[in-house]
Design goal:
This protein is of the alpha+beta class. It is about 35% helix and about 15% strand. Helix 2 packs across helix 5. Bound molecules: FE2/S2 (inorganic) cluster (2 copies). Keywords: 2Fe-2S, Iron, Iron-sulfur, Metal-binding, Oxidoreductase.
Length: about 170
């Protein structure tokens, strides 16, 4: 016999802190964080490529740590601090060090993968503010760029570290 009582999906009220602001929306329990950000909160800077945790395009920061938002349910991010690419810049007038480095070093090509690189590198430089070139390559090894623009992205990691130090020194 078919059970018809379970066909209606339960809707949950989900509240996250996104880029410093509490945001609430109603979504099914199985809504992925990537879809919740893009469709329910209209933060479309986070891109979705593979939806399998492989490409890194959907990477956001959860309490400062890089996470594949396509592998997380939105409900599991309840009450956590999420940073998307829209929240990386310190203010409307200034890019973040990683964003500035991408513009200086031509790290951005078609831009589809770029939000995931920006969030990944931002978190990495917090842990390792002085990467070697080999470490810069390691840092981005989990992100795929279909334009194969890795050379300039590696340069961007190294330049972002420099910019961060310059800003700290008040240059
Ligand atoms: S869309 Fe999440 S890793 Fe590719
Ligand atoms: S810049 Fe196009 S996929 Fe990376």
């Amino acid at each position: 016999m078919t059970d018809t009582t379970s066909t209606v999906e339960q809707q949950l009220e989900i509240t996250l802190r996104v880029n410093g602001v509490a945001r609430t929306a109603t979504a099914p329990a199985r809504r992925l964080l990537s879809d919740f950000l893009r469709h329910d909160l209209r933060l479309t800077g986070t891109h979705v490529g593979c939806e399998h945790g492989v490409c890194g395009a959907c990477t956001v920061l959860v309490d400062g740590q890089p996470m594949r938002s396509c592998l997380m349910f939105a409900v599991t991010a309840q009450d956590h601090e999420i940073t998307t690419v829209e929240g990386l810049a310190p203010d409307a007038e200034q890019m973040s060090p990683v964003q500035q480095a991408f513009t200086e070093c031509h790290g951005l090509q078609c831009g589809f993968c770029t939000p995931g690189f920006l969030t990944t590198i931002t978190a990495y430089l917090q842990e390792n503010p002085d990467p070697t070139e080999a470490e810069a390559r390691e840092c981005i090894s989990g992100n795929l760029c279909r334009c194969t623009g890795y050379q300039n992205i590696v340069k961007s990691v190294l330049r972002a570290a420099e910019i961060t130090h310059e800003r700290e020194a008040g240059a």
